Amino acid sequence: MNMQSKGEVTLKSANATNHPVIDPNYMSHPFDRKMLTLAIRETMKFFESGAILQEFKAYVLALRSQSDEDIHEFIDENLLPVFHANGTVKVGKSDDPTACTGKDFRVYGVEKLRVVDLSVCPMTPK
């Protein structure tokens, strides 16, 4: 799933020992919610086929119905991240307000600092 929702990481204060404030903003883009709703419907069909262990079947079939509203409520109550966040220090052109580093991985406005991990990827690699 190529999620479209955008979160943000901000500094709590100028004190470097304070943890940043991280707001992943999961499911804020309608495309993400629609794709997950479709995926849950397909999963429910699989569970209803009898090909899955009873304890898992009971968990997902706890939905009141397969309506968008009930599935969205299920998503809001049960969604947990199971992936590594990326794109928090996006590579991009210096005039891109969402980019923090250039293609040389140097952080804009900071001397002698580079970011060299998955956080520079603007999109999740497949």
UniProtKB/TrEMBL annotation:
Looking at the record, the residues that make up the Glucose-methanol-choline oxidoreductase C-terminal domain are 4-125
Q: Which Pfam families match?
A: GMC_oxred_C
Which InterPro entries does the entry mention? FAD/NAD-bd_sf (IPR036188), GMC_OxRdtase (IPR012132), GMC_OxRtase_C (IPR007867)
Q: Name one GO molecular function term.
A: flavin adenine dinucleotide binding
Looking up Gene3D superfamilies in the UniProt record yields: Glucose Oxidase, domain 3
The regions listed as transmembrane in this protein's record are none
- Which family does the record claim for this protein? Belongs to the GMC oxidoreductase family.
- Protein's UniProt name: Glucose-methanol-choline oxidoreductase C-terminal domain-containing protein
This protein's species is Ajellomyces dermatitidis (strain ATCC 18188 / CBS 674.68) (Blastomyces dermatitidis)
